[in-house]
Every structure is written in structure tokens, then in C-alpha cells.
Amino acid sequence: MAAAGILVPAAATEVLETATTDRKPVYTVVPDYPEEARRDRIEGEVQVCFEITREGRTRRVAVRKSTHRVFEKPARRAVKQSTYAPLPKDAEVPAVKACRTFRFSLEPVVTEKVS
Predict the structure, then answer these.
(1) pLDDT one-digit tens code per residue, 5-29
(2) What CATH number has the domain bearing residue 101?
(3) How far is CA 1 from CA 5, 8, 39, 107, 114, in A?
(4) DSSP three-state, residue 43
(5) What are the backbone dihedrals phi and psi of residue 60, each rounded to the nearest 5 degrees, phi first?
(6) What is the pLDDT of residues 39-96, one digit of tens each?
């Protein structure tokens, strides 16, 4: 018999990105939900700040705020793997700083009872 209202992890959801430029994401990575957090039913948020280089890579990735340390490494890894559109060679815009907030939450899933 299946139980109703089981909590299963959703992927971390990007909820906010702020930057001083209109740099377009090319490839965005969503962090994995840590197994330890899923097992212990921990939810939280992490704000990661970073620079976007002229080539569209991220660097100087650092956690600015976090509700639980277990989410920091997956959030940093996701930002490091994400890329942005490179700037044209004649553009005079320096690297820009941006921040991204990830929300890690467990979502209830309703299952039907099987007789």
C-alpha cells in the first residue's frame, strides 16, 4: 500500500539573479539536492555571488548567505559550471559581479492508496 503525502526532493530552484549588466546565460546548472539534506528533510536557501568574465565564465564564486552549510557546495558547483554569452572583442565592459539565490525545498507528492 502506498502512503499519501510523501516528501520527495525537488531540484534546487533558482529564485533570484542580480547583476549590473544584461549578460545572458548560455548554460545554467541547477544544483543537486544533497542526499544528507534529503534524508534529514532539511530545506534552505543559499545566495552565491560571483564575477562573470568577458569570456562568459564565472570566477571568484563565494557564498554570501546560507541557511544551512549542506547546500553551499552544490550551489557553488552549479554556479562554477554555468556559463554566459561572451562579450564582443571590441566591448569595453569589465567583468561584472552577480548574485544568484537557490532555494532547496522538499515538495509533498500525493500518492494514491492501492488496495
Answers:
(1) 344 444 555 445 554 457 889 999 9
(2) 3.30.2420.10
(3) 13, 18, 22, 21, 5
(4) coil
(5) 50, 50
(6) 999 999 999 999 999 899 999 999 999 999 999 999 999 999 999 999 888 877 766 8
For residue 29 the three cell numbers come to: 546548472
Domain with 70, as residue range(s), is: 6-109
Q: Is residue 1 part of a domain?
A: no
| Cα–Cα separations (whole angstroms), residue 49 to 64, 99, 100 | 6, 4, 6
